[in-house]
Amino acid sequence: MKLLWIFRAIFLIVVMAVIFVNISSEVMTQNEEGEMNDMEVYDTNLNALCWSGFGMVVFVLLVDVLTPKKKLSALAGVFFGLFVGMLITWVLSPVVEMVTVTFGITLTPPAIAAIKWTLGICICYLVISIVMRTKDDVRFLIPYVEFSKQTKGARPLVLDTSAIIDGRIVDLCRSSLFDAPLIVPRFVLSELQLIADSAHKLKRNRGRRGLDVLNSMQSDPSIDVEIDDSMIPEVEEVKGVDHKLLMFAKARNGRVATTDYNLSKVAQVRDVDVVNINDLANSLKVVALPGETMEVKIIKPGEEAEQGIGYLDDGTMVVVEGGRNKIGKDLVISITSSLQTSAGKMIFGKFEEFVQNRNDNEQRYNRRTVRASDNNR
Questions:
Q1: Sorting pLDDT into bands at 50, 70 and 90, what band is 360?
Q2: pLDDT greater at residue 362 or residue 300
């Protein structure tokens, strides 16, 4: 968007330069035979040139600024717009002379030429601006003409809040599995911040984890991630983050990356391409192996007797046998099985010992090892 403002500034400078050069030129005070005209004719030429230039500049800038802002097009779009603008200028040039004759305005040929130059600059600028904003629709109007999209590799991935909190998208990008830019819409970032400010401890931890994951992606030079603050009218009209996300992905011709099972199904109904990280993990068979141990804090009782429920940092639910009466405690569990579905991953385990007891045992073992080594000396 900075380039577009630079282009606008260059446009204003060129128009002012054309008007100033023609105003200060001596030909403005001469007629067709090269003789000097009186000041009344000069004033007429001056007023016509200044007011026509000012009016056209204000008009095209208002049209440009008030239309929805979109990303700059490729260089081919600029040249195409310039070519179309020159054709339109050539068609409209006789209109300037027709207006002077119709209303009886006495203008010298240099003044008419200056007005035509200003008209041409304004038309070329307006056409280029329109082409840059609507380049994806040019093929619909003109068959066999289409400008390439400015994306690296495949279509961009639009990240959902659940995909950011999950965190596995970072490892997937570092492994070069996705050769595409990552886009985080501003409303997704706002929802992530709202979760991080939640009064509920579990939700607050998930939100903070998501912000940490997003920060690590931005600091990694191998990951192309962008926080998109653009205001798209069709996106702003709908309510709900999920609906906004789907409309945003359609507008940016991207794919939605999520771990939300329901959002994946809605995206398929709305004809939006979606990458479900849980499905991808399921296809790669990344599961917890039985017999391994892990630490988890029991949050609430389970549905079955003697079951306790805990969660990992990425939101994975852990069902612990013998953990119902240990709510609020940190446990060491032995994994018995795991289940990976499109809705997420579940881990089943049984209680082994408390984390504090394990740490105490390790400290006693370390002290015995140190004493034994001292005695051997």
A1: low
A2: 300
Out of 13-27, 61-75, 234-248, 356-370, give the one with best mean pLDDT: 234-248
**Do 159 and 170 form a contact (C-beta atoms < 8 A)?**
no
The mean pLDDT value for 331-353 works out to 83
Can you spell out the DSSP letters for 45-86?
HHHHHHHHHHHHHHHHHHHHHHSPP-----HHHHHHHHHHHH
Residue ranges of alpha helices (H) inside the chain are 2-24, 39-66, 75-102, 109-133, 138-141, 161-166, 168-174, 186-196, 201-219, 233-237, 241-251, 261-269, 277-284, 355-376
pTM over 0.85: no
Q: What 3-state class would DSSP assign to 167?
A: coil
Classify residue 148 by its DSSP letter: P
pLDDT the model gives residue 310: 92
**Domains by residue range for the chain, with CATH:** 2-141 (no CATH), 157-284 (3.40.50.1010), 293-360 (2.40.50)
